[in-house]
Amino acid sequence: QVQLVESGGGLVQAGDSLRLSCAASGRSISNFHMGWFRQAPGKEREFVARVTKSSGDTYYATSVKGRFAVSRDNAKNTVYLQMNSLKPDDTAVYYCAAASLVVSRNSRAYDYWGQGTQDTVSS
């Protein structure tokens, strides 16, 4: 079992930046591919970014590529999502997730989820 706790969300204006953190406990995140997802009101949960457990390769949704950056610090057992040039469309609850077997943009590949952190971007 691994427990994930997100933090760092808040209310910002368009163009601002935020850094989300996902602190893990119970097991080392070095055993997991880590992903970030988000869910806006009235919409389905969507993939944002992911980072592999071994090489640290990253992959992004088209909507955030070039603005967001995912990283991991295995020593701190924490994953980060740096979000720059935020837009109102980025408003959502952001979730981090851990996948033990398959690296994927599909949420069904992830075994563990955090409770989410709200990010609101005003225009």
Structural summary, described in words:
With 123 residues, the protein is mostly beta strands. It has strands spanning 3-7, 11-13, 18-25, 33-39, 46-51, 58-60, 68-73, 78-83, 92-99, 112-113, 117-122. Strands 2, 4, 5, 6, 9, 10 and 11 form a 7-stranded mixed β-sheet that branches. The chain is globular and about 40 Å long. The model has no long low-confidence stretch (mean pLDDT 96).
Which strand-content bin applies to the residues? over 45%
Shape field: globular
Terminal Cα span:
40 Å
Q: For the report, how would you describe the main beta sheet?
A: 7 strands, mixed
Structural class: mainly beta
List the helices and strands in order.
EEEEEEEEEEE
Question: Helicity, in percent?
Answer: under 10%
Computed Rg = 13 Å
Tally of individual helices = 0
Keywords:
single chain, 123 residues, mainly beta, seven-stranded mixed sheet, 0% helix
Task: Describe what is shown at a glance.
The protein is mainly beta. It has strands spanning 3-7, 11-13, 18-25, 33-39, 46-51, 58-60, 68-73, 78-83, 92-99, 112-113, 117-122.
Explain the layout of strands and helices:
Layout (H helix, E strand, L loop, with lengths): L2 E5 L3 E3 L4 E8 L7 E7 L6 E6 L6 E3 L7 E6 L4 E6 L8 E8 L12 E2 L3 E6 L1
Parallel strand pairs: 2-11
Antiparallel strand pairs: 1-3, 3-8, 4-5, 4-9, 5-6, 7-8, 9-10, 9-11
